[in-house]
């Protein structure tokens, strides 16, 4: 910072930056308490087949309800948690919650399909990640073949060699792997060749204008082709309108998720939604 400031000029942004750091520390501390005080909750957003809206599964999305305050969306606290090992504690909590739900739903006869959980880079690459996951699957055996881990391209490319080993171990546990926000991170898809990936999630930024921009439509057609060739399934993210969904149907995209049919919702609401 000092280097960028010309001698004699005022460092007019320093207070703002100090405030920003302080705010992040405050959020991080409050989040640690939130984990202890049970202020976190998983919401679930359905994923459906494009051709007939048949439910296929749900994505677990974290929500934070500080007492007496408005709920805080994950975009505000996940990036802060990701700066430290706090994200591993949160991630373990999320995984445990998701697995216990899968187990309970199974025993109560609910059929939500597969459950996808977002995994941050630091958590994915943390020591014993795979053995902790294996323990969870022992504790909640219904999760085998029902759990999917969503990672971003960044997670994988952080350390391709290690990711490949980890992903193989995860697959061996009967857990599926999905690449989240696919297409936004990197221009080369070469890494897909060497990884046991089951699913690509096409980022909302490509879907948003798919019915209006031929360029976006072409990109999606191309990614769908790629997925078919590599025998991976595809979920289009962030479908908000009928024309977007119709375009996905024309392109033979198999699955989607979005506000058009279902927002992320608490467990009780999901169970009602599934039988509607
Ligand atoms: P993501 O994994 O890409 O999740 C999709 C986000 O898009 C979710 O936002 C979802 O609510 C939102 N979304 C779904 N359909 C639509 C739509 O039609 N229109 C629009 N505008 N948005 C839609 P959310 O729940 O706020 O989560 C944001 C991000 O936070 C997630 O992006 C994910 O990266 C992260 N996140 C959420 N839960 C967790 C978690 O448990 N662990 C980790 N590590 N990250 C999480
Ligand atoms: Mg996701
Ligand atoms: Mg996503
Ligand atoms: Mg996205």
Descriptive overview:
Residues 24-276 form the EAL domain. It comes from Oceanisphaera sediminis. This is EAL domain-containing protein. With 276 residues, the protein is an alpha/beta fold. 46% of the residues lie in helices and 17% in strands. The chain is built from eleven helices and eight strands. An eight-stranded mixed β-barrel has the order 1-2-3-4-5-6-7-8, surrounded by five helices. β7, α10 and β8 form a beta-alpha-beta unit. The longest helix is centred in the first third of the chain and has 24 residues, at 14-37. The termini are far apart. The model has no long low-confidence stretch (mean pLDDT 93). Bound molecules: ligand C2E and magnesium ion (3 copies).
Shape: globular
Proportion of residues in extended strands: 15-25%
Order of helices and strands: HEEHHEHHEHHEEHHEHEH
The major sheet is characterized as: 8 strands, mixed, barrel
Q: How are the strands of the biggest sheet laid out side by side? A: 1-2-3-4-5-6-7-8
The span between the termini is: 56 Å
Mean pLDDT: 93
**Helix run count:** 11
**Number of DSSP E strands:** 8
Structural Rg: 20 Å
**Class by alpha and beta content:** alpha/beta
Helix content: 40-55%
Which small-molecule species are bound to the chains here? Answer: ligand C2E, magnesium ion
Low-confidence stretches: none
């Amino acid at each position: 910072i000092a280097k960028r400031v010309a001698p004699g000029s005022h460092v007019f942004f320093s207070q703002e930056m100090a405030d920003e750091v302080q705010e992040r520390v405050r959020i991080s501390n409050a989040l640690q308490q939130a984990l202890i005080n049970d202020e976190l909750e998983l919401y679930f957003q359905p994923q459906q087949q494009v051709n007939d809206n048949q439910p296929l599964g749900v994505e677990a999305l974290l929500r934070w309800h500080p007492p007496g305050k408005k709920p805080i969306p994950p975009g505000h606290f996940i990036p802060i948690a990701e700066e430290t090992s706090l994200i591993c504690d949160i991630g373990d909590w999320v995984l445990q919650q998701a697995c216990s739900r899968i187990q309970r739903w199974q025993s109560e006869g609910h059929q939500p399909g597969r459950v996808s959980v977002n995994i941050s880079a630091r958590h994915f690459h943390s020591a014993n990640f795979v053995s902790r996951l294996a323990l969870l699957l022992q504790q909640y055996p219904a999760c085998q073949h029902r759990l999917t881990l969503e990672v971003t391209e960044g997670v994988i490319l952080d350390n391709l060699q290690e990711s490949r080993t980890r992903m193989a171990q995860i697959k061996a546990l009967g857990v599926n792997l999905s690449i989240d926000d696919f297409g936004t991170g990197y221009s080369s898809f070469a890494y897909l060749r060497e990884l046991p990936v089951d699913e690509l999630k096409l980022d909302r930024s490509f879907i948003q204008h798919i019915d209006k921009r031929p360029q976006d439509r072409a990109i999606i057609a191309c990614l769908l082709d790629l997925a078919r060739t590599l025998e991976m399934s595809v979920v289009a993210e962030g479908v908000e309108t009928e024309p977007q969904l119709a375009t996905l149907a024309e392109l033979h995209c198999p699955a989607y998720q979005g506000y058009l049919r279902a927002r992320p919702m608490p467990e009780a609401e999901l169970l009602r939604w599934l039988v509607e």
